[in-house]
Amino acid sequence: MEPEIAPHPASTEVVDFADWASNATSVLDISLATSFNPDFTYPIFGDHETIFGYKDLSIKLQYTSGSLVPYLKVDYSSKYNGSYPIDNITKVLNEHLPKMYLTNQDSFIDSVKTDHVQFKPIGEKIHEYTREVKHGNEYFEIYKSSFSSQKFREYHARMKIFVLLFIEGGSYIEDDDEKWEIFTIFKREGSHESTSYHFVGYILPPYKKQGHGSELYRLLYQLFKSRKDVSEITVEDPSEEFADMRDKNDIRYMLEHGGFKGLKAPVSKETLSTLQQEYKLTDRQLHRCIEIYLLSNVDKLNEQDYKTYRLQVKHRLYTFNYDVLQGLEEEERKEKLHETYLNLEDEYHRILELI
């Protein structure tokens, strides 16, 4: 059960609180040529995602689409003047925006024009690809950068806020650690001297559901898989959406490279070890990929084959959840394990539909 989110402190102190409260996610409008709302604002405005003290509040955070020079404009029809202090929007955002951001619209328009002509992505271009759209093709490039570049550190200070606004549970990384490798997607328009670039980055809303995440994931997976200093490729606390994309691409990669050839339940420890060394997936992720593949091929009408598959999956689930299951009575343990298996099988069927 998820913990209950505490309301804004002013909600218990101000009688007409609702008249002066705004949902931060709804009133914050972000623009990089195209406007959109953030997915999350709790890292900035608190778990309640509420801003108190204004009527008809509008927060516009606009960026030049390449160099990400920000322009902030806060509008409202009236401000609360009671005894309870209102939220200082500018002060809160100052903690997440670069020191030099614009508040003059004319200056921002000039920056947009300059950006279109002069901006070029920072770092090393390592990949480019094309997407077919109704009016032709769109072109994208992926760049690798690090904090050893002062210029990129300054750029990162402008782009990092998107981590909080669009990646659930996301947090900032330290820009004084030069071991970080940052990979960023840009859309390329025009050609030769008239080329312009637009930040796609962490796959912002205008570019979602277009295959950019899979393109970036496949590239990074192959890069790290080929490196001798990498023994395992892991993802820290992935969201459900990311986990789906990861499952889909890992399974496709293993299929294309013969990773599942000849596999049938039960899969031996020796085979699992060999596959782990070859594909450098975590133990849990390798098991998921194999189990999803085996499920796609098992004949459920063949009682023995289906039972063998179920036992393999249940054995892993039992091992993974050993501490929890050991605290239950035998019958309850069996029921819980079977319930967990059925939920997992439903999840696997959902993944197979994506593939």
From TrEMBL:
Active site (catalytic residues): 236 (proton donor/acceptor)
Chain segments carrying region Interaction with histone H4 N-terminus: 47-49
EC number of the protein: 2.3.1.48
InterPro entries named in the record: Acyl_CoA_acyltransferase, Hat1_N, Hat1_N_sf, Hist_AcTrfase_B-typ_cat-su, Hist_AcTrfase_HAT1_C
GO molecular function, one term: histone binding
Site (Interaction with histone H4 N-terminus): 180
Keyword check for Transferase: yes
Enzyme class: transferase
Phosphoprotein found in the keyword field: no
Gene Ontology cellular component annotations, sorted alphabetically: chromosome, telomeric region; nucleus
Pfam families, A to Z: HAT1_C_fung, Hat1_N
Keywords assigned: Acyltransferase, Nucleus, Transferase
Catalysed transformations (reactions): L-lysyl-[protein] + acetyl-CoA = N(6)-acetyl-L-lysyl-[protein] + CoA + H(+)
Domain Histone acetyl transferase HAT1 N-terminal: 30-168
Domain of life: Eukaryota
Localization, UniProt: Nucleus
A Gene Ontology biological process term: subtelomeric heterochromatin formation
Primary site of residence: nucleus
Family per similarity comment: Belongs to the HAT1 family.
Protein name: Histone acetyltransferase type B catalytic subunit
